[in-house]
Specification:
The complex is a heterodimer of chains A (258) and B (270). With 258 residues, chain A is an all-alpha fold. Chain A is 80% helix and 0% strand. Chain A is built from ten helices and no strands. Classes of the chains: A mainly alpha (258), B alpha/beta (270). Chains A and B meet through helix 6 and helix 7 of A and strand 5 and helix 3 of B.
Chain lengths: 258, 270
């Protein structure tokens, strides 16, 4: 099937949903504070673009900042947990439990820790949210290696560092990237929810709250649309990085025409 | 052309010397599982020795002891006159496992280069040696492919190239053709004998196929289980080079029968 052909069903589905949405809202005369028409949202999106775009960038900076810190911390700890097995065994149950916690609930706390007006207070929540799935998955990827590959490295008298670089890290990449895909969505959720708890007004979260309380629902929805588009762009960026770093992987092979 | 080594005493230096080697898995002598007991075995340079026996006879364990992937719990074992540990650190042997165990994220050539990276060989030298080894296993044109693009037999040939890239004096092979179909298997055996002949390396080969052991080996070591021990050592009276005609010689059949009898009567003694 051609590239365009593969995307066609998805595009048709989206257009169909939008058309039904538009039709139902018009047919039943649904009020805008409950659900605005897609065309109204689109109009608001275009009209408010110059306002919401810089807000979107501010929110994205919080999300990206937290994402980078959380990911880096997760990589360092995952490497440490691989090197010192007892450390890993001690940390793992805690990390698995923590990853099931509603970490956004921490937002009011980090707002106090890092000054509510500073983007760092939002980055902190995002970093904690991102940390756990990335740490848990990366550690699994580094440790759950085919024992035959470890035996092979031993037979060529490879030390722990050489085994890490040549076997463990490549083995961990698929785990790492699937965690990053989850984390990319989490990071925008974390940033926007943290914004709801107060701080700078120049961000999407605060904009959505102020428009919604001012009954300007199409504008609020326009900001939600922008947040979604940023989330999708972030996700696609990670997908691209995944293809660059592991073209050999089963999930990618087919599309590179091997 | 290698010198004839049909008789073990005609061969060169001791490559493997095991005396009273035992291996017990598990923590205590009481609860442990005794995989090997009192193994005495000498393998000289240029020999091709097969270890054959039923499952649980410890043939793979013995190979892993020689390769220092396991440590013996009794006896002494020397590889090239050193401890197996030192021999491993000195890269005295290459190892081929039942699965090719190629790294999917590397090209075929880079898989063969892997052992050389461990000794810090330069990029140019690595590439040259890798291509030389791929020539040996007749896979040069596949150097830039990835492992998953190769058939099972080709993957195993890459694994052999990788094991030989150090030009080791000893090649340890653990049922390397066990996962291949019969036709591929016979072709690989022929290939292996050609490589053995052209490199002069010593081979220790674990298998559970009697014809395979007889066709390949200068000596067949027959093992029995519970605990794993050597029950017979059989010299193979076939000349070299061997080819498909060898498989139809009377001596080939006779030796197969001899090995089969030895497997059937483990109590027969050496």
């Amino acid at each position: 099937m051609s590239r365009a052909g593969r995307w066609l069903p998805a595009v048709v589905a989206i257009l169909l949903v939008l058309a039904v949405w538009e039709g139902l809202v018009r047919l039943f005369d649904v009020q805008a504070f409950i659900l605005p028409r897609p065309t109204a949202i689109l109009t608001a999106f275009v009209e408010t673009w110059s306002t919401i775009w810089p807000f979107g960038i501010n929110t994205l900076i919080e999300a990206l900042g937290g994402f980078v810190f959380g990911t880096l911390a997760a990589i360092v700890l995952a490497l440490a947990a691989t090197r010192w097995v007892t450390l890993g065994e001690g940390l793992m149950p805690f990390a698995v439990a923590a990853s099931a916690m509603p970490i956004v609930a921490l937002a009011p706390i980090t707002n106090q820790w890092f000054t509510i007006t500073s983007p760092v207070s939002k980055m902190a929540v995002v970093a904690v949210m991102v940390f756990f799935p990335v740490f848990v998955n990366t550690t699994r990827g580094l440790t759950e290696v085919d024992p035959r590959e470890i035996e092979l490295m031993r037979s060529v008298a490879a030390g722990p560092a050489a085994t890490l670089r040549r076997v463990r890290i490549p083995n961990a990449l698929p785990f790492f990237f699937s965690a990053l895909k989850v984390a990319s969505a989490l990071s925008l959720i974390g940033a926007i929810v943290a914004e709801y708890f107060g701080g700078s007004q120049q961000v999407l979260g605060q904009y959505i709250i102020s428009r919604a309380s001012g009954f300007q629902f199409p504008e609020a929805w326009a900001a939600i649309l922008l947040a979604s588009l940023l989330g999708i762009a972030f996700y696609l960026l990670i997908l691209l990085a995944e293809r660059m770093f592991m073209p050999w992987h089963v999930s990618i092979r087919g599309s590179t025409g091997s | 052309m290698r010198p004839a080594v049909d008789a073990p005493d005609a061969a060169g230096d001791l490559v493997v010397a095991a005396s009273g080697v035992g291996k017990i898995f598990g923590v205590s002598q009481v609860n442990g599982v005794e995989a090997l007991r009192n193994i005495d075995l000498e393998i000289r340079a240029g020999e091709f020795v097969s270890l054959i026996g039923p499952s649980g006879c410890g043939k793979s364990t013995l190979l892993r002891l020689i390769g220092d992937l396991l440590e013996p719990t009794a006896g002494t074992l020397r590889v090239n006159g050193k401890t197996p540990h030192q021999a491993r650190l000195d890269r005295d042997y290459g190892m081929v496992f039942q699965q090719a165990t190629l790294l999917d994220w590397r090209s075929v050539r880079r898989n063969v280069e892997l052992p050389l990276e461990m000794v810090g060989a330069g990029k140019v030298e690595r590439a040259e040696r890798a291509v030389e080894m791929l020539d040996l296993v007749e896979l040069r044109t596949f150097a830039d492919r990835h492992p998953w693009q190769l058939s099972g037999g080709m993957q195993q040939r890459v694994a052999i190239a990788r094991a030989l890239v150090f030009k080791p004096e000893l090649l340890l092979m653990d049922e390397p053709f066990g996962a291949l179909d019969e036709m591929t298997r016979e072709r690989m055996q022929q290939e292996l004998l050609r490589i053995w002949d052209s490199t002069g390396t010593t081979v220790v080969f674990v298998t559970h196929s009697i014809p395979e052991a007889v066709f390949l080996s200068t000596r067949v070591v027959v093992m029995s289980a519970r605990p794993g021990r050597i029950s017979h050592v059989i010299d193979v009276p076939l000349g070299h080079p061997r080819d498909d005609d060898t498989r139809e010689e009377q001596a080939f059949y006779d030796t197969i029968t001899e090995v089969r009898e030895a497997l059937r009567h483990p109590g027969g003694g050496q």
